[in-house]
Specification:
Elements (H helix, E strand, L loop, with lengths): L2 H4 L5 H7 L11 E6 L3 E7 L19 H20 L7 E13 L8 E12 L2 E10 L2 E14 L1
Antiparallel strand pairs: 1-2, 2-4, 3-6, 4-5, 5-6
């Protein structure tokens, strides 16, 4: 195991092994920091090649807020899956069960790197509850509370 992997680093291959999402819906490019059952930092590199920029908006491309929330939710899922990966089976899926207190503070545009700062609030009766923040260059872009659960399908 490399030093980067010991510190929680996960590249796109490791992300694909844990999350079921694929292009164009995979919205995490790298995990930078990870503490099981506690916190995670990941990034999404936002490029002009994203398919949603064609229509949102052609004159001034802005990442849709719902996709910013989706990227934060995927980061929450990644934190949960990495925390319990030794007990996961192939038929396990993470379902989003709720988003509360969503706030958007600045637009996310092509060329930005959206940083996901995720922390576990609590785990109760199989429901994971997270505080999620998305930042660009240290500025808050979005924040919310996210709930999800892992289930066999």
């Amino acid at each position: 195991m490399t030093e980067a992997e010991k510190n929680g680093y996960t590249d796109i291959g490791g992300i694909i092994n844990l999350l079921p999402h694929r292009y164009p819906m995979l919205l995490i490019d790298r995990v930078l920091e990870f503490e099981a059952h506690e916190r995670m930092v990941s990034i999404k590199n936002v490029t002009i090649n994203e398919p949603f920029f064609v229509g949102h908006f052609p004159q001034k491309p802005v990442m849709p807020g719902v996709l910013i929330l989706e990227s934060l939710a995927q980061a929450c899922g990644m934190l949960a899956f990495k925390s319990i990966q030794d007990t996961l089976e192939d038929n396990h899926v993470l379902y989003l069960t709720g988003i509360d207190k969503a706030r958007f503070k600045r637009p996310v545009e092509p060329g930005d790197q959206l940083r996901h700062d995720i922390s576990v609030k609590r785990i109760m009766r199989g429901i994971w509850m997270f505080d999620a923040r998305g930042t660009v260059d240290g500025q808050l872009a979005a924040e919310c509370e996210i709930r999800c659960t892992v289930r066999a399908v």
